[in-house]
Amino acid sequence: MEALFAQLSQPEGESWRIAESDILREWSRSGSAAMDLLLKRGEQALDAGDSNAAIGHLTALTDHAPDFAAGFQARAAAFALRGDYGPAAADLARVLELEPRHFAALTQLGGMLEEIGDNTRARAAYRASLDIHPHQQEAIDGVARLDRALAGTGI
User: Fold this and answer.
1) Alpha-carbon dihedral 49, 51, 52, 57, rounded to 10 degrees
2) Which of 11, 42, 59, 107 reaches 20 to 30 Å from 33, CA-CA?
3) 49 touches 78 (CB < 8 A)
């Protein structure tokens, strides 16, 4: 993983795309077919907009695999979809406890904080994510948008 993260942070070329894909793929593997199935079902429910079903599947996953960050990250998205930002933030904190370099969770946190109007902390989360993965367009756009908003020039 160290080599992938080093490749991810390279400012030149396109090799970061392969590193990003490899990192995300590695993070999505629990090591258990049953846990992977729970993640898949939770993500499918999330994609369908059924946050309650997603939370049910993903809670079963996090209960049985408390060291699998992907379950907490997906459940955070489901909680946020439902407007439950406290539990979503707690799940993202767990993801970052398990994997401090989890750029996707940091970007997700930035988006959630921005949504609730905490622009200063949202910008900090986006920037922390970009420190790890400087090519994330969502985080790049978030920082630019919040820089303008915090400078008083609008969004």
Assistant:
1) 100
2) 107
3) no
pLDDT at 96 over 90: yes
| Helix, strand, coil percent values for the chain (each to nearest 5) | 75, 0, 25
Task: Report the alpha-carbon distance of residue 126 to residue 11 in Å, rounded.
Answer: 17
Residue with tokens 């209960």: 63
Domains with residue ranges and CATH for the chain:
30-99 (1.25.40.10), 101-155 (no CATH)
- From the list 77, 69, 76, 70, the residue with the least C-alpha distance to 90 is 76
H/E stretch holding 103 reads helix 103-115
Q: Is the pLDDT of residue 155 over 70?
A: no
Structure token digits, residue 94: 């767990």
For residue 121, with 0-12 CB atoms within 10 Å meaning exposed, 13-18 middle and 19 or more buried, which class applies? middle
Long-range contacts of 133-141 (CB under 8 A, 24+ apart): 133/8, 133/9, 133/16, 133/20, 133/103, 134/9, 134/11, 135/8, 135/16, 135/17, 135/20, 136/103, 136/107, 138/107, 138/111, 139/103, 139/106, 139/107, 139/110
